[in-house]
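Batch queue: ligand-bound targets. Current item pairs a single chain with LNDFFVEH. No template structures supplied; prediction is de novo from sequence plus SMILES. Inputs echoed for audit trail.
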Amino acid sequence: MTTSAVRVLVATAVPAERDAVARALDLPGVDVIAAGVGPALAAASTATALTRAALAGTPYGLAVSTGIAGGFAPHAPVGSLVVADEITAADLGAETPDGFLPVTELGFGTVTHRPPETLVRDVVSATGAHPGAVLTVSTVTGTAARAAELRARHPRALAEAMEGFGVAEAAAAHGTPVLELRAISNPVGPRDRAAWRIGDALAALTEAFGKLAPVLESWQPHDR
Ligand SMILES: O=C(O)c1cccc(C(=O)CC[C@H]2O[C@@H](n3cnc4c(=O)[nH]cnc43)[C@H](O)[C@@H]2O)c1
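Prediction returned. Tokens below.
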């Protein structure tokens, strides 16, 4: 028996990232959208796309959050790739005199989604991406102190970006597996926007998705 490829929704934040991915991924059944910046808009856009496809009788079997990201030095240098084995909302919770409490410790919701292990392994093999935790933040880190605080709370964190958890929440609501792949454009730390290597990171993203095409074409949800 032959199995057909699952439909894949790839969500970037901005059009430049969408175009970098689309340059390498021209496959039937793969849609690449610019879903907006930040977890809320990413979740809304992703949920809308997933719902539309489901109502049309052509549901997606995988949602991918991707784009550029900040990397935690020295683990994820500029120009490298990171694939999330854990997508964690790093600032969803409450500040207390004793430190940060995630919403889960307040008795609500979830702060982590885990992509399928086999898919993460396949992405590592195909692209050379480093596997680790990718944090989702609503505020880009701008100081060394905040970077150190995040790493202390999440010792496995390799990168931070602003959309992964939103895409993952939307995917989870549809029972759809999720993946997050990031190309590092800047170190997480003191703000120096002029030093962001956006062009290099977008080129790395295009190269990665070129290598990923056969992985996405052959992946099946039961491989989870
Ligand atoms: O100005 C441009 O040409 C341009 C091209 C592509 C992308 C951008 C963005 O500004 C994307 C914003 C997007 O990037 C992620 N990101 C990148 N670095 C970090 C970081 O250090 N901390 C958190 N997020 C980061 C994030 O997902 C943003 O949505 C501009």
